[in-house]
Design a protein that fits this description.
72 residues; mainly alpha
Length: 72
């Protein structure tokens, strides 16, 4: 999903730019099993409503302290 890959890259869960399979592997390696289904939905929603592609709402983001994109 584009939202998941964008958020994963911006907050530093993955450094991959083009390989969706590698982004998925990176996420599977860091997210505990009990949170994987929930994390997928949360990443989608965060990417859809807060970490928007063109105009991310960084000021209201709860993850900005961890976000590489925000730190730039």
């Amino acid at each position: 999903d584009t939202h998941v890959s964008r958020v994963a890259r911006r907050i530093g869960f993955s450094q991959q730019n083009s390989s969706l399979l590698q982004i998925e592997k990176d996420l599977l390696n860091i997210i505990p099993d009990i949170f994987k289904k929930q994390a997928h939905h949360l990443l989608i929603l965060h990417g859809r409503y807060t970490c928007i592609a063109r105009k991310p709402k960084c000021i209201q983001c709860k993850l900005k302290q961890y976000c590489n994109y925000y730190k730039r």
